[in-house]
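Message: A physicist's question: would you kindly supply an amino acid chain plus fold tokens?
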Amino acid sequence: MIPESPTVLRCAGRTVARYTTRPAPAPARSPRPYLHPVTTLAGRPVTETAPEDHPHHLGAGVAIPDVAGHNFWGGRTFVRDRGPVALDNHGVQRHDGFKLCDPDGFVAELTWTAGGERLLREHRTVAATALTETAWALDLAFSLTNVSGRDLSLGSPATNGRPGAAYGGFFWRAPKEAAAPVVFGAGVVGDGPGPDGEEAVHGARADWVALAGEGWTLVFAGATARTREDPWFVRAAEYPGVGSSLAHDERLPVAAGETFVRRVVTVVADGRLDRNGAAALVRKAVTS
């Protein structure tokens, strides 16, 4: 491991994100490294951390509400036939160090622990790439290895009995504004018109989905075939947030020693993109 460098991401000569490696929130918020603030090239913030509506939402990062019964998302745990319950079951993502830390990206090693037990080891790669004078891309890939010595499985509130709440994996909390952001997406993997609106995009398996707010647009793209198999979790009216669904319809088994990988590239743009503009930037971001 190399010594920790300043955890600042730069793109096109500007600071566009900061990475907190050792947060100190309450244990019930499932402490974990996260990116915040993330900004557009013009400096507009497009992440939020510890908002009043969901204090356990921490910018952009990786969070899973159920790892073998342990909560690495924060907040209450959804228990079948009981609903959301405050439990003493929260895990911690420990930043072990950087293997690489450059101005435009880093490679980090993390350990996911709960109840004094090492459950998962994570290899996380984050990179910033300029796309245009008004847009850049944040490339976040993570590989999680089961180091517990036993078989595990990952779940979500949906797999535990709460329909429509299959969050868990990559997650980005955007700022809450006076009006809810516009939501639209690519066609459901393949050809065809793209969906519009939160209800149509939430739960869809689409190449990408977008949130467009006041002077900014975020376009989230699955950058591998396996990542694109995970449906999107989308919120706009209640709060603005987009993530992946590692455990949508059923729990995700992870055998002892097994590793799984996901990669999401997020286009961060000034202004409001239309569908064609979003699609063009995704193509550039994923192939660059």
User: Anything to note?
Assistant: Residues 1-6 have pLDDT under 50 and may be disordered. The longest strand covers residues 117-132. The chain has three helices and 20 strands. The CA atoms of residues 50 and 57 lie 5 Å apart.
